[in-house]
Every structure is written in structure tokens, then in C-alpha cells.
Design brief:
With 316 residues, the chain is α/β, with parallel strands linked by helices. It has 2 domains: 120 residues, Transcription Regulator spoIIAA (2-Layer Sandwich), CATH 3.30.750; 178 residues, 3-Layer(aba) Sandwich (Rossmann fold). The protein has 10 helices and 16 strands. The longest helix is centred in the first third of the chain and has 16 residues. It is globular. The protein starts with a helix and ends in a 6-residue tail after the last strand. 40% of the residues are buried.
């Protein structure tokens, strides 16, 4: 990161802070390769906390220069007027993703809002904070589709889709994720929004051993599949995604919808289209959801793929 690149970063952040978003939002998505020199940097506005994530080691001198630039940011009038209180730099290229608190009192959690819904985020203690901001329009779509429907949320993580589905009037939501701690945070998110937990199930199970349980709780009018690209020992996208798709016909109600997601730059839309055609040919492609404009990518095939498919109507 050259001085010119750091000056561009600071100028952009000052413009954002001069009129900060009213809810949680990405401010700079360098990984979309639309910001020359900042390809391994992202900046998120967490409503009082500025989270800067660095995904590649820039070298000691460049890292020190970045920290100096961020410190300087906190001394500008735009920082104070924005209501920002904390600045956190997370080194995602290191094994434990350590966090450096550059400004403000360190805290373990913060609460953010998105489209009127509330979520608890972790700060500085985990690789991911608990809410993937690029899925904002996906959560909005689920909320718009959920009324009266039974929803299955696979790889549920902290249950953001489930919160959105309940807000949209879902009849029942089943969340499945092998990480029980993430599901516990999902319960917290539902409680935070005053949502009835009797309409939500939390299954801390390994998916490929749970098909029988899921069939008994179905059928489902809407299934969400948002897996990790690679989860060591449990999920390899190229091998295991088709195994999930193959089960969809036995889980879906007639005309049920599927939101199938992939967020791996090396995997384009053809992967999902081809895999669905091979594994569940009765399901028809409907649309690819837009990504939030703040997640612009030089190559849309490298960005998040959130694609909708639909089961056929009942026969007879």
C-alpha cells in the first residue's frame, strides 16, 4: 500500500463518515478488485465501530503505515461527528485472525441493525463476526418470500436467514448447523428481535447424518443452502454441494423454492446450474439475486452467487 493508495483510502472513509450509514454496511470492498492497491482490504461500518480487515500480509512497513493512516482518521472531525467510538484492525491473513484495537475501549460484542432487524456481532475474538454483509439482499428476499411458509435453513450459522424469515411471517423455521455455539447466538438474535422461539428449531447436527430427521420435520416451502466453501473435515464445496442438492426433491413441497448460495471466487454460476441439473433436474432455475451495490466486483462470476430454483407443481 503506497502513500497514494492510503490517501485514497482515507479520503473515501472520510466521505463515508461525513454521512454515515444508518445501519450496518460495508464501506469499502477492496476484494472486488475495484480499488487498485486495496484488493486485500475491507472496511465495515458497525454502527459505532469501524472494522478494517486485512487479508494479505503487506509487510511490516506497509502495515505500520496503514495503522498510522487509520490513527490519523480518528483525529478528523468527520470521525467525531459520525458517532464512531472504536476502530479495529483484524489481520485475517494470520491463523487466529488477531485483532488490533487502534482506537476506543475494546469490547467483545456489539449490536447492529439491518432493515429494522437486530443482530449481535463478535468483535476481535473470532474470524467472522456473525453476520455476512454481502447477503443483505438475500435476507431481504427471504423475508419477502416467507409469509406462511415452512423454512429450512441449512448451514444456519447465527441464523440471520431465520430472523429474516420470522420477520416475514414464516410459519416455522428449522435451522441446522453443526456449530452449536453459532446456533446459540442464533437464539440470542431471535430473542433480540422479540421473535417466538416456539416457531424455530435449532439442530446442532452434521447435515449428512440428518436427512431422516429433516424429512420428518418437512416438507418445506423454502430451503436455504449457504455453505462454507471449505470446512475442514465436514464440507468440501465441489464434492458435497451436489450431495445436498440431490436431497432437495424429497424435502421440498410442491412449488417450493430453494435459495442456493456460493461465495467462492473460483466458482461461477455454472457450478450451481450444472450441479442442480445433474442432481435435481426437476427443479427449475428462476433467478440470480442481485448483490448489494457496495459489494461491486470487477468480475460478477467471482462475487457471491445467490440463485433461486423452484420445484414443480404437484401432479394430478
Amino acid at each position: 500500500m503506497t502513500p497514494d493508495v492510503l490517501a485514497t483510502l482515507q479520503q473515501h472513509l472520510l466521505q463515508c463518515l461525513a454521512s454515515p450509514p444508518s445501519e450496518v454496511r460495508r464501506l469499502l470492498h477492496g476484494r472486488g478488485r475495484c480499488w487498485p492497491g486495496l484488493e486485500q482490504l475491507t472496511v465495515d461500518w458497525l454502527q459505532g465501530t469501524l472494522l478494517v480487515c486485512l487479508y494479505r500480509d503487506p509487510g511490516a512497513a506497509a502495515l505500520a503505515a496503514l495503522q498510522d493512516s487509520l490513527h490519523a482518521l480518528t483525529r478528523q472531525p468527520q470521525w467525531a461527528s459520525s458517532g464512531a467510538e472504536r476502530l479495529l484492525l483484524q489481520l485475517r491473513y494470520l491463523a487466529d485472525s488477531p485483532a488490533l484495537w487502534l482506537h476506543g475501549t475494546p469490547v467483545q460484542q456489539c449490536q447492529v441493525s439491518e432493515q429494522g432487524l437486530h443482530y449481535l456481532l463478535d468483535l476481535g475474538s473470532k474470524q467472522n463476526n456473525g453476520l455476512f454483509l454481502d447477503m443483505r439482499l438475500g435476507r431481504q428476499w427471504v423475508r419477502e418470500q416467507a409469509a406462511g411458509r415452512r423454512v429450512l435453513n441449512l448451514f444456519a450459522y447465527t441464523c440471520g436467514f431465520s430472523v429474516a424469515a420470522l420477520a416475514g411471517g414464516a410459519q416455522q423455521v428449522v435451522n441446522l448447523d453443526m456449530a452449536r455455539a453459532a446456533l446459540s447466538r442464533g437464539r440470542d438474535n431471535h430473542r433480540l428481535n422479540g421473535q417466538p422461539l416456539e416457531r424455530v428449531s435449532f439442530l446442532g447436527h452434521e447435515l449428512f447424518r440428518s436427512w431422516g430427521k429433516l424429512r420428518k420435520l418437512g416438507p418445506y416451502d423454502l430451503i436455504i443452502i449457504d455453505p462454507p466453501s471449505l470446512q475442514k473435515g465436514s464440507f468440501v464445496l465441489s464434492q458435497d454441494y451436489p450431495r445436498v442438492l440431490r436431497r432437495l426433491p424429497e424435502l421440498l413441497a410442491p412449488q417450493g423454492l430453494v435459495l442456493a448460495c456460493v461465495n467462492a471466487p473460483e466458482v461461477g454460476t455454472e457450478f450451481l446450474l450444472h450441479s442442480m441439473a445433474e442432481a435435481a433436474p426437476s427443479l427449475q432455475f428462476v433467478q440470480r439475486l442481485d448483490n448489494p451495490p457496495e459489494f461491486a466486483d470487477r468480475d460478477p462470476q467471482c462475487a457471491l452467487k445467490a440463485m433461486v430454483f423452484q420445484a414443480p407443481a404437484a401432479q394430478g
